[in-house]
Design a protein that fits this description.
By secondary structure, this protein is α/β, with parallel strands linked by helices. It has a single domain, classed as 2-enoyl-CoA Hydratase, Chain A, domain 1, CATH 3.90.226.10. It has 9 helices and 14 strands. The strands form 3 sheets. A 6-stranded mixed sheet has the order 13-9-8-7-6-14. The chain has a 5-stranded antiparallel sheet with strand order 4-3-2-1-5. A hairpin with a 4-residue loop joins β1 and β2 (about 35-45). The N and C termini lie far apart (about 55 Å).
Length: about 350
Amino acid sequence: MRPFLSAGYLSLIGLFVLAFTTDVSLGDVVLMKDGRRFEGTIILENTVVRIDAMVAGIRATLTLPKDQVKSIEKNAVAKGFYDPPPPPPRFSLRDPLEDPDAIYIEVPIVGVFGKDVFAQGVQGAITYAKRHDIRHIVFTIDSTGGNLAEAAMIFHTLDRGTEGIHLHAIIKKCYGDAMAIPVLCETVNLAPGGSLGGLDRSITEISKKYKPEDEQVVRSEIAIKIAERAALRGRDPRAIKALIDPLVTFAVWKDKDGQQKRGLTVPADTPKENIILQVGNNEVLKLNSDQAAQLGIPKFSGVAKDLGKVLELTKWKLESDYGAKIMAGFATKHAKNEYAAQAVIDSHIKSNIS
C-alpha cells in the first residue's frame, strides 16, 4: 500500500498538463513552417536561428534552419521564464533505515526519440530525484535514437541540471542520437550482446524534414559539445565524436609492441590483424561488446538492481517506479495528440471527398 500514490499520480498529471500547454507568449517567439513554436532568447540569426529556449519546461539551445522559419516575434523575457516546473511529492515512503547514497530510480530509454522517448520525461525524473534527495539515476537504454532535436534537448537537460546526481547507463542497444545520454553518465555498462554507435542519418526523423546540410550543422555542433563533456570524464573525445558525426574519422590499432594506439587513421604499414577498428569519412562508428570493452566500456550481466554490486553499494535500492511511469506517461500523451491530429486530417479528407 502506497499512501502517497494518489497524490503522485495527480502531480504527474499536472506535470503533463504543464509540459504540453502554453498560452502566454514569453520572450522571443520563433514559429516554424511545420507549426512548431519556440520561445526564449534569440542569440543568433543568419542562415540559421539559434535560440535559448524553454521547450516543455526544459531549457535548451536550439539551432533552427532559417528557411524553415515562418516568422519571428521579439519580446522581453519575463522573470522566472527559465525556471523548471515544480516537482511532484514523493511516490514512496522514506524508509528510515535506507542509505540516501544508495537510492536510485530507473529511467527506461526504450524506442524512438520523439515518439517513445521525450526530454520532458527525462526532465521530470531529474526534478523528482533532486526534490527528494535521490542520488542515482539509472538509464536502461534500448534505442536507435530518432528525432535529433529531442536528443539535443535531452543532452542539454542532463548537461545543465544534474548537479549532485550520479548518472548511470546500462546499454542493450544505443545507436545514433541516443548516444547523447551515455556520454554524460558516470558509469556505462554494456549488457550481454549489447552494441552502441552511430546510425545512418538517412533514417532519422530530422532527415525527413530538413536538408542534409542543415542536419549536419546541428549534428556536428552536438558532437563537439558531447565530446567536450566526455573528455571531462576521462573519455576519448575523438571516439565520442566518431560515434555521432559521420564526418569524423577514427581508428584504434596495436603497434609492433602490442600497445593500443588511437588516432584519425591507421598507419599505412599496420598489419591487418593489428587493426581493432577504423571508421572513415561519411561513416559512423559502431561497436560490439568486444570492441567496446577494448575502449574501456565494461560488459555487464544484469539489470538496474544488480548495478549496486558494481558500485559497491550494499544498500542499493529502487526508490519507486516513478521514472518508468513518467516516461510512459509522456509517450501516451504524445500518441493521443498524434491520433487526434490524424483524426482531424482524416475528417478534412472525408469532407473534401464528399
